[in-house]
Design goal:
Layout (H helix, E strand, L loop, with lengths): L2 H4 L12 E2 L21 E4 L9 E9 L5 E3 L5 E5 L3 E9 L7 E18 L4 E6 L1 H4 L6 E2 L15 E5 L6 E10 L3 E3 L14 E16 L4 E18 L9 E3 L9 E2 L16 H4 L1 E6 L5 E4 L6 H10 L4
Parallel strand pairs: 2-14
Antiparallel strand pairs: 1-11, 3-6, 4-5, 5-12, 6-11, 7-8, 7-9, 7-10, 7-13, 8-17, 13-14, 14-15, 14-16, 17-18
InterPro entries: FAM78 (IPR029638)
Length: about 325
């Protein structure tokens, strides 16, 4: 069976992009003075005795202490909005007496995602990263996909271009939350029947606060954060919209952890693809063959391996 026969797309029914929210603080854009080759980037842990003294004034990482919000107003999809993960750091950077260019910001990667939607006895749909499923990589970059390896391109990272003859103060922020659309009907049908019975999502992330010497192409890891969320929703398809879905997972999310020891960032987590571009939605019926409903925006050797292993038949 050919690849084209296995894959179709759904333009409106299923949606799973994480919401990367940008703060509206004014940002000074500085023209880049050097190009970074991320596959050649050297990384090590920040050493206060060896490296420029980066004074951390305030550093906070939390997940909102509120339940996941469920929205049943649409006749075609259930929507939910998870509590937000938020990180903010204010720091002072020392004077730079040369033409060196530095960046300080957040890098995020996902190393586990289980996101399955059950449709009774008909089967279930699953959002998946082919790269993680076939185990070609240990993590996948989770960012806006426009400014690798950084989480975003605005207030999530700051560029400091020398020479600067005085200490400078900066604040960077990042925010991540889940806002998917999940069809009431079987995702291959694009109808309005109520077949959805259960939603389960468990996802884990690492976040690194890093400083990069762009001139030397060297990445310094300052702090490492671990966070995760589990969302489970029970759905009674025979009830009216508005009372069908019930959150059954813990309404108060587990808070992020600052690791006592930093860990290195796998090279795969510094480069494309981003999580939003790599993911696909597959329908796995109780009877019949699996079918990709939403194609990944990015394809690589891992994607081809995934299709060959789980979809294509000899």
């Amino acid at each position: 069976m050919s690849d084209n026969n296995l894959i179709q797309t759904s333009e409106f029914m299923a949606y799973n992009n994480d919401a990367i929210e940008y703060y509206t603080l004014s940002t000074c854009y500085i023209e880049e003075t050097c190009k970074i080759k991320l596959n050649e980037t050297k990384q090590r842990f920040y050493d206060i005795k060896r490296d420029p003294y980066i004074e951390i004034i305030d550093f906070e990482a939390i997940i909102e202490k509120r339940p996941t919000e469920i929205d049943e107003t649409s006749a075609r999809v259930l929507k939910y909005k998870s509590p937000s993960f938020m990180a903010s750091v204010t720091f002072r950077f020392p004077p730079i007496h040369s033409n060196e260019c530095w960046k300080v910001g957040f890098i995020q990667a996902c190393d586990c995602m289980i996101f399955q939607n059950q449709y009774g006895d008909f089967g279930f749909s699953s959002w998946e990263f082919p790269q993680l499923i076939v185990r070609d990589v240990s993590m996948i970059n989770d960012s806006c996909g426009r400014n690798y390896p950084w989480y975003g391109s605005k207030n999530q990272v700051v560029t400091i271009q020398g020479p600067i003859n005085k200490q400078t103060e900066h604040t960077i922020n990042m925010r991540d939350l889940f806002v998917p659309w999940i069809p009431w009907d079987i995702p291959t049908c694009e109808g309005e029947q109520s077949c959805l019975t259960h939603i389960y999502r468990h996802q884990r992330f690492y976040v690194w606060l890093c400083a990069m010497n762009c001139t030397k192409n060297e990445l310094l890891i300052i702090h490492t954060i671990r966070w995760m969320q589990t969302i489970e929703i029970d759905v009674k398809p025979n009830l009216y919209r508005g009372i069908r879905a019930t959150l059954i997972s813990n309404p108060e999310p587990e808070q992020p952890i600052f690791l006592k020891r930093n860990i290195f960032i796998p090279s795969c987590a510094l480069q494309e693809p981003s999580a939003n571009n790599a993911q696909l939605l597959i329908w796995k019926p109780t009877q019949g063959e699996p079918l990709v409903v939403v194609n990944p925006k990015y394809r690589d050797r891992s994607t081809i391996k995934y299709f060959s292993r789980y979809l294509l038949k000899n």
